[in-house]
Amino acid sequence: MSTSLWFDPWLSGVSLVDRYGESVIQDSGLQRNARLSSVIKEGEWDWPVNFPDLIDIYNLTSGLSLSNTSDRIHWMKKGGTFTIREACNVINMQGSEVEWWKLAWFPRSIPKHCFCLWLTFWEAHRTLDKLVRWGVVSTSNCCFGCGQEESIDHLFFSCPFTARVCKHFLGLCGFRRTPRGWREESAWCISRLKGNGFKLWITKLTLAAVLYHCWQERNNRLFNNCFHNFEYLVKCIEEDVGGKCIGLSMVEDNPSNRDIFYNWNLPPSLLSVRPLQRWAVLPGSVGGHTR
Ligand SMILES: [Zn+2]
């Protein structure tokens, strides 16, 4: 019997020290490293009953029958075994699925971009409007010089600077539209970017890249006094998205995909003439997607 008398949660899932405090050890006169077997003699409980806490323990355990089999700790329920997955499920309360999770987590994505997008969907970025409300800074002027207040809605993509970047790349992906604030943009993305085709994949990849680089540029301007222009951001995003596309194989050759290949200056040799169920061999991708 290797179970710790004081520190293992053998009594109703709680250790005796957690239930009664450290003083119960001293009151009992037993060792701190005592095992559960030290209070069992000849198949019967044998508690010292010199203090109220110990009398209470005696009463609680008197209804527990003892057997000669080895002690075993179960996870959550009798027969349950511990796994990291089960532990995560206990720690992270499972909630309903968010409708945007496939926009943030998808195969062949760029993880740091997806994380930025995930934060944006949760409106978790510490934008200047929040920092002013918290008393951290005194002004919330947008760092892109538009004279408006910086907020999630403004940065993505009401701001003329970021809107220009976003509009440029939406155009490369075959969407002719002017971006608006994040609430409208996120609703548009959720309704229009469902599915697994190449056009949808590259649009999701691009959206995450645009968000990431706009946020990076904002941080560089605010904290590093480092300013880049529209052309620089376009180059960074093109490199990230284009680099991901180079590794593709078997993209279906159709007019829509051909246009996108032309817009992005991708090698036509990646296009396949065969009609395909899936346009590429995709590795698995994981990510949290519940709230
Ligand atoms: Zn602005």
UniProtKB/TrEMBL annotation:
Domain Reverse transcriptase zinc-binding span(s) in chain numbering: 82-164
One Pfam family here: zf-RVT
Superkingdom per UniProt: Eukaryota
InterPro entries from the UniProt entry: RVT-Znf
Protein name: Zf-RVT domain-containing protein
Organism from which the protein derives: Cephalotus follicularis (Albany pitcher plant)
